[in-house]
Amino acid sequence: MSDPVFFPRAATPTLGEIAALAGVSLPDGVDPHIAITGAASVERADRGDLAYMDNPRYGEALAATRATACLVSKRFAAKVPATTVAIVTPQPYKVFAAVLATMYPAAVRPGSSFDATGVSPGAYVHPQARLEAGVTVDPGAVVGPGVEIGTGTIIGANAVIGPQVRIGRGASIGANVSIHNALIGNRVILHGGVRVGQDGFGFAMSGQGHTKVPQIGRVIIQDDVEIGANSTIDRGASRDTVIGEGTKIDNLVQIGHNVVIGRHCVIVSQVGIAGSVTIEDFVVLGGQVGVVGHLRIGAGAQIAGSSNVASDVPPGARWGGTPAKPMREWFRELTLLKKLAARRDLPADEADPAS
């Protein structure tokens, strides 16, 4: 089997260029013209590679690395071996990301599955759709009537763009994505299988049966949002579902109708957000968090993974548990339960529920 190169290198930055990108100086005596030809983790890096390290778990790997250069914070600089150039920066991971984007721009956002530009002969674009110059539409994609798509946007294979949808410039719509009843901003990335704008889960329930409530809102996704594979965003019922600028959503996330998510939030895989929740700016929801409907999570709050949020969360709070509560309170409960479980003076029927 051949070994293909999925992300060809587009640039070979020098140590001087990397230091300039980081806004720092190279150590004395280091040749700024040394070229970097690859990037790797500290334990796998070899000569010619750039690595980074900002986690104490990898201290031993850093000490043994063969990388030509390594981006490190000041606290780890002394662990860098003499054969590796230490580029000291307060944000090694962020600088590493910027270097990767320079070297491998094709990995920054999904490209055409057909490795082509323009509208493929196998695509179906309605004559009433309006596409600016520079839009790519892959085979099997369907673009409905009244759709408007901005320049530089890629519509992946078998994607479905419903009537009147608006998509901004420089966006990437992955394979098998469906978008209906939505306004999508500039530079938005929707990975494969994302569903946007379908019905919210709305029913008027009764003992005689459940009556479907028409969902007449939209989905608005603002600029620079990224949404992971197979995530779903329901359209609003009585107001719009909104995803704020710069928010990053992982794979397999469910967002219900009428949800409003602020700017620059981070929502990790398998989160479920029920209808009419408001999440303010810079909130972080860990993996598998569940949020009950009609709540508000304040700006800058952080919720630990696998927690269930059943009440409003104040701004800046750090909560965890089921039901979620302030982190200190949650930890105290866990510690108390652990101590109770370890007691040997409990009656047998209390110590062992199965007895």
TrEMBL record:
<protein>
    <recommendedName>
        <fullName>UDP-3-O-acylglucosamine N-acyltransferase</fullName>
        <ecNumber>2.3.1.191</ecNumber>
    </recommendedName>
</protein>
<dbReference type="InterPro" id="IPR018357">
    <property type="entry name" value="Hexapep_transf_CS"/>
</dbReference>
<keyword id="KW-0012">Acyltransferase</keyword>
<dbReference type="InterPro" id="IPR001451">
    <property type="entry name" value="Hexapep"/>
</dbReference>
<comment type="function">
    <text>Catalyzes the N-acylation of UDP-3-O-acylglucosamine using 3-hydroxyacyl-ACP as the acyl donor. Is involved in the biosynthesis of lipid A, a phosphorylated glycolipid that anchors the lipopolysaccharide to the outer membrane of the cell.</text>
</comment>
<keyword id="KW-0441">Lipid A biosynthesis</keyword>
<dbReference type="InterPro" id="IPR020573">
    <property type="entry name" value="UDP_GlcNAc_AcTrfase_non-rep"/>
</dbReference>
<dbReference type="InterPro" id="IPR007691">
    <property type="entry name" value="LpxD"/>
</dbReference>
<keyword id="KW-0808">Transferase</keyword>
<keyword id="KW-0444">Lipid biosynthesis</keyword>
<comment type="similarity">
    <text>Belongs to the transferase hexapeptide repeat family. LpxD subfamily.</text>
</comment>
<dbReference type="Pfam" id="PF04613">
    <property type="entry name" value="LpxD"/>
</dbReference>
<keyword id="KW-0443">Lipid metabolism</keyword>
<feature type="domain" description="UDP-3-O-[3-hydroxymyristoyl] glucosamine N-acyltransferase non-repeat region">
    <location>
        <begin position="34"/>
        <end position="101"/>
    </location>
</feature>
<dbReference type="Pfam" id="PF00132">
    <property type="entry name" value="Hexapep"/>
</dbReference>
<dbReference type="GO" id="GO:0103118">
    <property type="term" value="F:UDP-3-O-[(3R)-3-hydroxyacyl]-glucosamine N-acyltransferase activity"/>
</dbReference>
<feature type="active site" description="Proton acceptor">
    <location>
        <position position="257"/>
    </location>
</feature>
<comment type="pathway">
    <text>Bacterial outer membrane biogenesis; LPS lipid A biosynthesis.</text>
</comment>
<dbReference type="InterPro" id="IPR011004">
    <property type="entry name" value="Trimer_LpxA-like_sf"/>
</dbReference>
<comment type="subunit">
    <text>Homotrimer.</text>
</comment>
<keyword id="KW-0677">Repeat</keyword>
